Amino acid sequence: MNIDDLIERMTPAIYQNLRQSLERGKWPNGVALTQEQRDITLRALIVYEYKYVEASERIGYMPQQCKGMTPETADTSDTIIRFKD
């Protein structure tokens, strides 16, 4: 199963479970996530959020406009993150 298949099968409940596990650093049963599990979970969440979650609700969201920046000078271009397979 590749990442796209995983994302297509992920329900909102699974998404929430994974997000909470990543935030807490442990699975619901209390077992700590390994670094590899954190990496895979974060990758899956980013891809899922890109497809199904409003930008302002995504992990790591930051408003485009910073202090002292006007809408005319803000960079509003989308950045695409490429993952190694």
Topology overview:
Elements: H1 3-9, H2 12-24, H3 35-52
Helix pairs in contact: 2-3
Q: What does this 3D model show about the protein?
A:
- By secondary structure, the chain is an all-alpha fold.
- The chain has a domain at 3-57.
- The chain has 3 helices and no strands.
- It has helices at residues 3-9, 12-24, 35-52.
- Helix 2 (12-24) packs across helix 3 (35-52).
- It starts with a helix and ends in a 33-residue tail after the last helix.
- 4% of the residues are buried.
- The mean pLDDT is 81.
Q: Indicate the multimeric state.
A: single chain
Gap from first CA to last CA: 13 Å
What low-confidence regions span 5 or more consecutive residues with pLDDT below 50?
none
Main beta sheet strand tally, sense and closure = none
| Topology, number of strands | 0
Helix content: 40-55%
What is the percentage of strand-forming residues? under 5%
Order of helices and strands: HHH
Radius of gyration, Cα only, in angstroms? 15 Å
Please tell me what the overall shape is: globular
> How does the helix and strand content classify structurally?
mainly alpha
Rounded average pLDDT:
81
Short description:
This protein is mainly α. The protein has helices spanning 3-9, 12-24, 35-52.
Pick out its properties:
85 residues, globular, mainly alpha
